[in-house]
UniProtKB/TrEMBL annotation:
Top-rank taxon: Eukaryota
Molecular functions (GO terms): electron-transferring-flavoprotein dehydrogenase activity; flavin adenine dinucleotide binding
Organism, scientific name: Rhizopus azygosporus
Protein name: FAD/NAD(P)-binding domain-containing protein
GO cellular component: cytoplasm
Length: 138
């Protein structure tokens, strides 16, 4: 509703999703500093957390570039990995995963999926992306 009030033409009337540029900016040229990613955007990616994460990283990269003084022309386009993946973490080394990598969409149990989870459940990766310096005591 917020986007519909701000920029009605940015909403795809057929499906209600937000139209975005490849840089994850909304399509309205009046608002070059507004980005969208994930389940709310009009994109061919499957609506899963995996794709939302990758789209969000693309948006984050471009927002950081702008904050650091880069021009709009230097923003990087999001490139879909075309890797449908749903993974539910059930604990430190337990997970179930569904993917199409090995052919049709299949489910993979904890033995394989659990080994794809780092010991700190991605906390280090997130801290590095955000340039955070978490306390050793945390």
């Amino acid at each position: 509703e917020l986007m519909k009030a701000l920029s009605p033409d940015t909403i795809n009337k057929d499906n209600g999703f937000i139209k975005v540029k490849p840089t994850m900016q909304i399509l309205d040229e009046r608002y070059p500093n507004i980005f969208a990613a994930g389940d709310v955007i009009d994109h061919t990616d499957v609506k899963t957390g995996h794709y939302a994460w990758m789209q969000g990283l693309a948006a984050l990269t471009n927002i950081r570039k702008l904050i650091n003084g880069a021009s709009y022309d230097s923003l990087e386009p999001y490139k879909s990995k075309d890797l449908a993946l749903i993974k539910v973490i059930l604990g430190k080394k337990e997970a179930v995963m569904q993917t199409h990598v090995l052919g049709p969409l299949i489910a993979v149990g904890s033995w394989i999926a659990g080994r794809s989870i780092p010991h700190n459940v991605y906390a280090t990766t997130l801290a590095e992306m955000l340039k955070a310096k978490p306390s050793k005591d945390a």
